[in-house]
Structure prediction request, 155 residues.
Amino acid sequence: MSLYFTVKTLHILSATLMVGTGFGTAFYLFWANRSGSVTAQSVVARWVCRADWWFTTPAVIFQPLSGLWLAQHMGWPLTATWIWLTLALYALAGACWLPVVWLQLKMAKLAQAAHQTGSDMPAAYWRYARRWELLGYPAFCATVVIYFLMVFKPA
Prediction:
């Protein structure tokens, strides 16, 4: 197997891991937040943070490195519409994701404290959860468009 196909395969797998983990963890925390169970919110928020660090973060780092290497290897100019648009959307997703990570950490701490004390979720948790959710929509939509750009490579 050539280096190109190895990098391309890892690029596709890491894109799947990045988007899949992001969507999956968002799905579970979204519904845990609507469950009315502080215990569920506490457990899910903690594991969402771990999944982001273990799976999403390495993929987020690998994606632009492998993508730029593949483009260079294939001789595609970075000025190609699909490449600069992909990079712009990736930057948008990243600009949403970084605050999401911070919000998730805060939410996990608040949920853990509420669970340990047997209290209701504080108002700050719900403010963070709303911002977390609002930032997730454009980030996810951007990554879906990036998939189409990677596959179709429009001129």
User: Anything to note?
Assistant: The two ends are 29 Å apart (CA to CA). The chain has a mean pLDDT of 96.
